[in-house]
Design brief:
Helix content is 5%, strand content 56%. The protein is mostly beta strands. It has an 18-stranded antiparallel barrel. Strands 18-19 form a two-stranded antiparallel ribbon.
Length: 417
């Protein structure tokens, strides 16, 4: 795959250096340097686990267009710690590599590309090889069909099919999307056929924003000679208001509500904990900082483990965000969030048993942020977050009790270009 990427760059260089071709080459991406310090990730006062480190990442987009045809190569260094030897996999090096072109009224995209997910991370499927066909039904209505190969391992088949219908009219304050997804995954011992139906709608008017997203998981799974049925759901509700629009106060208020169904009986064959194709539903600085928010340093083990690592899972979230525009260059933020288990029981996907936790309440988190614009595209991001664990973090058989606060501090310089 590296050879394919090198051939792509050679072709770009040849076209760029030949004046007879009317082509355009543009660059974009980001470079980030992040300094982390965190403590008590295991929430145990008796263990000294204070850690600090510096890491960085480069992501470079090379977009070549010639008429209606576009090609992209996205070079990704991977995120690695200063002082460590860089060791990146082939699929990290060429994170995206595709060509896009028109075919009649449709537009075709083929190659390695990132998933376009309008459902707030509930159905994000990462970066994979595939084919996408987009077709405009009307000026405000469009549809696209895609097929993705999610797994390149020998002996395993893992294909994701999707159909999306989008509504977006520039004359209306309302947008929305409907989606159907089906995953066909199998190997020598397992056959997995989950399907999702999803919908989202958002509106904005005079400083007020409101968005509702929901998804339903169904389908079947065969593993170890047993058959299972999926039956789960999740939704995400977000609202916000910009006080400067009416009262002149440079303050924005946001509210987030997330809900993922849990399994009330891990011993049966009904899989009722919501799962997405890939970990992508995140929030805050510590507890749900998974997927690719690029601002987390604490181990993902703090994310309660289990199926919740695949998305919102068996969890509920309620959070309030405040953003204050102190100056034209400085934004200050405050986030307060509470997390619960939907069910005190938590099942593992490949077993017919589960863990029971002491309570539903997982804990609370406070995050402070400051973003200062140093120059065009160059930002200094400061973040401090504290997670206060509750009884829901511990199995019912545990002798431990909530006794320690996990903390994380981040200083990041990010350059978007």
């Amino acid at each position: 795959m590296k050879k394919a990427g090198l051939l792509f760059m050679v072709a770009v260089a040849l076209i760029w250096s030949t004046p007879s071709f009317s082509s355009n080459l543009s660059f974009g991406g980001h470079y980030e340097v992040k300094a982390f310090a965190y403590d008590n990730a295991d929430m145990d006062d008796g263990v000294d686990d204070e850690v600090s480190f510096v890491e960085h990442e480069l992501r470079l987009n090379m977009d070549l267009t010639k008429g209606p045809v576009k090609g992209r190569l996205q070079i990704n260094s991977g995120t690695y710690t200063w002082g460590d030897e860089q060791d990146i996999e082939d699929d990290e090096w060429h994170r995206e590599m595709y060509i896009s072109f028109p075919l009649g009224r449709a537009r075709i995209k083929v190659g390695r590309m990132e998933t376009e997910d309008p459902f707030k991370g509930l159905l994000y499927a990462g970066v994979s090889d595939g084919l996408k066909v987009a077709y405009p039904i009307s000026p405000s209505l469009s549809t696209d069909i895609s097929i993705r190969d999610l797994d390149e391992e020998d002996g395993r088949r893992d294909i994701l099919y999707s159909l999306l219908i989008r509504y977006n009219s520039p004359d209306q304050p309302v947008r929305g999307a409907l989606g159907w997804y089906m995953r066909a995954a199998e190997d020598s011992t397992t056959e997995d056929r989950p399907q999702w139906l999803a919908a989202t709608i958002d509106t904005h008017r005079e400083g007020l924003t409101f968005k509702v997203t929901g998804a339903y998981l169904f389908g079947d799974r065969k593993a170890g000679g047993l058959s299972y049925r999926y039956g789960a759901y999740a939704f995400d509700i977000r609202g916000g208001y910009d006080l400067s629009r009416r009262w002149g106060v440079p303050l924005a208020l946001g509210i987030v509500m997330g809900y993922g169904s849990g399994d009330d009986d891990p011993g049966d064959r009904d899989l009722e904990t919501f799962l997405g194709p890939s970990p992508a539903y995140f929030y805050g600085g510590i507890f749900k900082d998974v997927g690719e928010p690029r601002t987390g340093g604490l181990p993902e083990a703090l994310n309660h483990g289990g199926l919740e690592a695949q998305g919102i899972g068996n969890q509920r979230i309620l959070a309030i965000d405040l953003t204050y525009r102190a100056t034209e260059r400085l934004d200050l933020g405050l986030s307060v969030a509470r997390f619960w288990l939907t069910q005190e029981r938590d099942a593992n996907l490949n077993t017919t048993s589960g863990t029971t936790y002491k309570k539903n309440h997982l804990g609370d988190e406070i995050t402070l942020t400051a973003d200062y614009l140093l120059s065009e595209g160059l930002t200094l991001h400061l973040q401090a977050a504290w997670f206060f664990p509750a009884q829901g973090m511990y199995p019912s058989t545990s002798t431990r009790t909530p006794e320690d606060t996990a903390s994380e501090y981040l200083a990041m310089i990010g350059w978007e270009f």
